[in-house]
């Protein structure tokens, strides 16, 4: 049960079907992440443009406020200025101050929106990866038949946990972490570490075949060489 070659033909056929679904699933996940990133970039650019416009408005208000203060000071010094003129200038000053406060609040809200967008994108990635093993159709067959568990690892990775490899300790865990969010499989690490030659061979074959069953079989064989 620890080697794919010994599986019942019906089970192996089922696993071949799952392997195809796995590749389709990974492809869909990549597409969704790419789309989410593009949406995020577009929204972020829109927010940045708004931020710049608010900045220009704030600068304009600051300049108008300076000019108004100068005008108000001049009118105060002019003994002939009417009280209505002074009241008018003071009202303008109050309006400018209120406008500036509103703009500053909008700038702060905008900054918070940018941070929220970043957090949403990060949560989307984590959510998809943490639930990957349940989203892959019928993935439980791997756990039940091959003593293998597939989990969402850190961002962009899937973790494969093998057991029943070491005959002296069937519960000993062998772990494989594969980066799956690129167009090619290029980042692979294992615990315990296998040779770099074996790592390179696993990646080359998996990129060529895109066959999950063969990949898992080869990974098991690489771990077996260590025990």
Automatic annotation (TrEMBL):
The keyword Electron transport belongs to this UniProt entry's keyword annotation: no
Residues covered by the Chromosome segregation protein Spc25 C-terminal domain: 154-224
Signal peptide: none
UniProt record, GO biological process: cell division; chromosome segregation
Compartments it resides in: Nucleus; Chromosome, Centromere, Kinetochore
Keyword Cell division: yes
InterPro entries reported for this sequence: Spc25 (IPR045143), Spc25_C (IPR013255)
UniProt keyword list: Cell cycle, Cell division, Centromere, Chromosome, Coiled coil, Kinetochore, Mitosis, Nucleus
Gene3D superfamilies: Chromosome segregation protein Spc25
Gene Ontology CC terms: Ndc80 complex; nucleus
A Pfam family recorded for this sequence: Spindle_Spc25
Family (UniProt): Belongs to the SPC25 family.
Function: Acts as a component of the essential kinetochore-associated NDC80 complex, which is required for chromosome segregation and spindle checkpoint activity.
Assembly behavior: Component of the NDC80 complex, which consists of NDC80, NUF2, SPC24 and SPC25.
Protein name: Kinetochore protein SPC25
Organism: Wickerhamomyces ciferrii (strain ATCC 14091 / BCRC 22168 / CBS 111 / JCM 3599 / NBRC 0793 / NRRL Y-1031 F-60-10) (Yeast)
Lineage: Eukaryota, Fungi, Dikarya, Ascomycota, Saccharomycotina
């Amino acid at each position: 049960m620890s080697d794919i070659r010994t599986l019942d033909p019906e089970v192996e056929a089922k696993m071949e079907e799952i392997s195809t679904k796995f590749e389709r699933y990974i492809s869909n996940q990549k597409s969704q992440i790419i789309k989410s990133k593009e949406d995020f970039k577009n929204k972020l650019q829109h927010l940045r443009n708004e931020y710049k416009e608010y900045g220009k408005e704030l600068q304009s208000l600051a300049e108008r406020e300076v000019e108004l203060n100068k005008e108000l000071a001049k009118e105060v010094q002019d003994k002939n200025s009417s009280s209505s003129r002074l009241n008018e200038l003071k009202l303008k000053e109050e309006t400018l101050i209120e406008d500036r406060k509103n703009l500053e609040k909008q700038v702060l809200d905008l900054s918070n929106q940018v941070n929220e967008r970043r957090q949403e994108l990060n949560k989307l990635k984590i959510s998809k990866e943490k639930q990957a093993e349940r989203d892959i159709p019928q993935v439980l067959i791997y756990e039940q038949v091959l003593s293998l568990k597939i989990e969402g690892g850190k961002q962009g990775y899937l973790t494969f946990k093998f057991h029943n490899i070491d005959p002296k300790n069937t519960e000993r865990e062998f772990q494989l972490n594969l980066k799956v969010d690129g167009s090619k499989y290029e980042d692979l690490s294992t615990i315990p570490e296998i040779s770099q030659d074996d790592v390179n061979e696993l990646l080359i074959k998996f990129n060529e075949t895109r066959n999950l069953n063969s990949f898992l079989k080869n990974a098991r064989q690489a771990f077996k060489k260590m025990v």
